[in-house]
Each structure stands twice: as C-alpha cells, then as structure tokens.
Design a protein that fits this description.
The protein is built from 17 helices and no strands. It is mainly alpha-helical. It has one domain. Helix 3 packs parallel to helix 15 and helix 4 crosses helix 8. The N and C termini lie far apart (about 70 Å).
Length: about 350
C-alpha cells in the first residue's frame, strides 16, 4: 500500500514543474493587467510565448500539457455557474432569436471563409465560434474537442490573440459609434452584448453608456456564453471519428464531461442553489484557470509557428467581427429591439 502511494505521489509530482510554470506566468499576467491595464489573457499568452523553450524540457512538458487541456476544460465548465434561465427569459423571444441567428451565421461564415481561402474547416469552425460566442474562452473550448494537431494549436493561439485585440478595440470604438447613430441605451446594450467577443470588454463597454446599457449588454452576452455548450457539443460529435483524434473511439464520450458539468451548473444556478458568493468564486476560478490554460498554450507555441499561418486567419477574424456587429445593428434597427 505504501509503495502504491509513493508511485501515485511520484506520478503527481511529474506534473508539478509544468503546472508551476503556467501558474507563475498567469500570476505575472494578472499583476501586469491589474497595475497597468490591458487584457489579462493577452499578457498570459505573450509571456507564455517567451518561455516556449520550456516546452521541450521533459520535466515541464507533462504539466504544461495538463494545464492546456484539463485545467482549460474545468475553467470552461465553471462558466455555467454565472448563467440562469431567468436571465435568458429577460431577453424576450425576438432578441434571443436575433442572437442565436447571429451566432449560427457567424460560425457558418467562418466555415465558408475557410473554404474560400483554402484553409481547413477546423480553422473556420474555431474562428467563427470565437467571434460568435465568447472570444478566447470559446476558441479554447472548441480547440479542446478538435483534432490535436500542430496546425490547430498554432491557429488557436492566433485566434486568441486576434479576438482579444479585436474585442479591446470594439470596447473603445463601439460605444461612441452606437451613440453617434442614435441608438437608445437598451438597443446599444443588445448590440454590445451581441457582438463584442469577451465578457469583460462587454461589461466595460456597456457601462460607458450607463447602467441600462450595461445590464442589457451583460445579459445578452451571458446568453451568448450559454450557447457555448451546444456548439462545442456539436463540434465534438462531428469529430468523434476523425482520423486525427488519437484516442480510441470506444473511449470518446458522446458528451464531453466538462460540457455536462457546464449544464449542471447552469441548472443549479437557475434553481437558486448557488449563492452569489459561490457564483463570484466560480467566476474568479474560471478566469484564473483560463489564464493558466492560455499561458500553457503560449508556452507550447513559438513565434515562428504563428508567422507560418500568414494573413488568412487575420482576414477571417476581422471579416467575422464586422459581420456579427453589422448583423446585430441591422436587426436592432429593423425590429426596434430594446427600445424601452
């Protein structure tokens, strides 16, 4: 028995150096973000890229891979604690239909752009999902169920950089643009929540236009985050028999465990079984895990690998970003949503 425990401790110890590296990078990114401003995830990615040489170190590689996959999935699952069915009901059927359509069309556009630009379908699904749902979190979640190839790892990193930069620009540009075209606060909130990629930037942009816009933007954004589960599930089912998926088919679950956990947390939050402090704790833990996971992804990728991707992924992300905001603005103006 003692010998077995020693073996288990030794096995866990093999993860420690790599996990420690990712946690230190996450801490550094958090410190820079809190003291000097800027996107926490982007800092984690850039600092991680600077430590790419550690990925080839045998003592660190195992823990880095653990953070990039297991920690990532737990972080995505914890997002469910922030979402309730009552929040979704507040949107109304018309607004919900517009957001669902915007998400589906943006993902479809990503697949079409990938075909037109002669890129892989994986890249179209990943970029479209990142722009359509919740930025870096969606890119990482979709990537976790795609075939684990070098090309997909490189594209995921570029997608994270792209959506983070575009989301930050949108946070600055969109509020003033929406005021200029005369949208009411509720209407502007729908546009901000329905088009900006990352949750933090949605909240910040909404608050620039006042409490009503901020609250509406947050609820709409959480509805988009809720769509992460069915989208990732659809992608997982689509790729179950893909030859690049190295896990034996008999061991691949129809529904990944982290998506089931996501759904359970949504149901518990909707039933009022998760207290506000626990929701805050889950949100903070999710953010921390996603920062750690993106740090691991940065360590696993080199600048040279990113440059090999060329201009096409950038064109895809920009086109999808312009499309989703134009679609939501047009829908709000035509249907006069959020006019109260």
């Amino acid at each position: 028995m003692i010998h077995r425990w020693r073996l288990q401790l030794a096995s866990l110890g093999a993860y420690f150096p790599g996990v420690l590296v990712c946690m230190v990078i996450a801490l550094a990114a958090t410190f820079v973000s809190e003291h000097y401003g800027g996107p926490q995830l982007l800092y984690a990615l850039l600092i991680g890229l600077a430590f790419h040489f550690l990925n080839s170190h045998p003592q660190a590689a195992k823990g880095i891979g653990f953070c990039g996959r297991v920690v990532l999935r737990v972080g995505v699952a914890l997002l469910g604690a922030r979402i309730t069915f009552s929040q979704v009901a507040q949107l109304g059927l018309e607004t919900a239909a517009v957001i669902v359509l915007a998400v589906l069309l943006t993902i479809g556009l990503g697949v079409l752009l990938a075909r037109w630009l002669k890129c892989s379908r994986d890249e179209g699904l990943l970029s479209g999902s990142a722009v359509a749902i919740c930025g870096a979190s969606a890119a990482l979640a979709v990537s976790s169920v795609l075939p684990q190839t070098k090309e997909n790892e490189r594209f995921t990193l570029l997608a994270v950089v792209g959506v983070t930069v575009l989301s930050t620009l949108a946070m600055v540009v969109y509020p003033f643009s929406l005021q200029a075209i005369g949208l009411l606060p509720g209407q502007a909130g729908i546009v901000l929540g329905g088009s900006i990629h990352d949750v933090a930037q949605v909240v910040a942009a909404g608050m620039m236009l006042g409490p009503q816009a901020g609250d509406t933007a947050t609820v709409v954004k959480l509805f988009r985050v809720m769509m992460l589960m069915p989208v990732v599930l659809a992608v997982a089912v689509m790729y179950r028999k893909h030859p690049a998926v190295k896990v034996p088919e008999t061991e691949v679950p129809l529904v990944p465990g982290f998506l089931l956990a996501f759904v359970v947390l949504v149901m518990l939050a909707s039933a009022g079984l998760i207290s506000p402090p626990m929701v805050q704790l889950a949100g903070d833990a999710s953010r921390w895990m996603l920062v750690t996971a993106i740090a691991a992804a940065g360590v696993k990728t080199s600048f040279e690998d990113l440059l090999k991707l060329g201009w096409k992924p950038v064109a895809m992300l920009v086109t999808e970003t312009v499309f989703i905001v134009a679609f939501v603005v047009a829908a709000v103006l035509l249907l006069r949503l959020g006019g109260a």
